[in-house]
């Protein structure tokens, strides 16, 4: 009986060394193959459209677009693509945001050699992959919300505002952001003013600190 074709994987991480290590883990398995790589979130979206992989493995902290932003975009435009988030952060907030962004699982880089292959296979079977700490967080949060009769909290800012916040924090000018996102500088300024007002912040420095705090950029 012929073997099924290996799952085709897009791997996105801004560190070449990490990509090489992850690629070695994946390509030692007969049922997994890496067909494309990217070193930022925007490139990951472009590569996914170009290569139509079965599975995208996205690092959370990347330039241009984070893994979460890329996941949201790909969930919208490539609904058949399965997504795994790869991260060094054992952080409940990111975990829930990853699920909300359309990811099927969340793998810690520190145990990627142990968990990643299993996570890929689970995701390709249509099953979620949750590392043990995430399961505990999920159950604890669900119980807390159920006990208090609350819904999950809404995000404070829109996807577009988050995209602009990240680019501002990375040091891009309004004109550069306008060019990257193909919008007018005036629109960028309007979004920036909305961000300051919504988040109760004064200036670019405070926006940058906020972006670091919520994991949009690395300090």
TrEMBL record:
Domain of life: Bacteria
Modified residues (4-aspartylphosphate): 59
InterPro entries attached to this UniProt entry: CheY-like_superfamily, NreC/VraR/RcsB-like_REC, Sig_transdc_resp-reg_C-effctor, Sig_transdc_resp-reg_receiver, Tscrpt_reg_LuxR_C, WalR-like
Protein name: DNA-binding response regulator
GO biological process, alphabetically ordered: phosphorelay signal transduction system; regulation of DNA-templated transcription
Originating species: Streptomyces shenzhenensis
Keyword annotations from UniProtKB, A to Z: DNA-binding, Phosphoprotein, Transcription, Transcription regulation
Annotated HTH luxR-type domain residues: 150-215
MF-aspect GO terms: DNA binding
One Pfam short name: GerE
CDD domains: LuxR_C_like (cd06170), REC_NarL-like (cd17535)
Residue span(s) of domain Response regulatory: 8-124
């Amino acid at each position: 009986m012929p073997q099924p074709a290996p799952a085709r994987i897009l791997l996105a991480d801004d560190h070449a060394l990490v990509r090489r290590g992850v690629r070695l883990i994946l390509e030692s398995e007969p049922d997994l193959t890496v067909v494309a790589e990217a070193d930022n979130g925007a490139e990951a979206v472009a590569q996914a459209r170009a290569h139509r992989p079965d599975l995208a493995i996205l690092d959370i902290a990347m330039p241009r677009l984070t893994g979460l932003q890329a996941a949201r975009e790909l969930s919208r435009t490539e609904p058949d693509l399965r997504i795994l988030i790869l991260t060094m952060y054992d952080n409940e907030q990111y975990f829930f945001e990853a699920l909300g962004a359309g990811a099927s699982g969340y793998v810690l880089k520190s145990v990627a050699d142990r968990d990643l292959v299993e996570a890929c296979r689970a995701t390709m079977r249509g099953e979620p992959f949750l590392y043990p700490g995430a399961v505990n967080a999920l159950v604890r949060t669900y119980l807390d919300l159920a006990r208090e009769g609350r819904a999950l909290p809404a995000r404070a800012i829109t996807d577009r505002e988050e995209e602009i916040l990240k680019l501002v924090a990375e040091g891009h000018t309004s004109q550069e952001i306008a060019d990257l996102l193909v919008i007018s500088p005036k629109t960028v300024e309007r979004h920036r003013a909305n961000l300051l007002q919504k988040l109760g912040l004064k200036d670019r420095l405070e926006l940058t600190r906020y972006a670091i705090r919520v994991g949009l950029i690395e300090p």
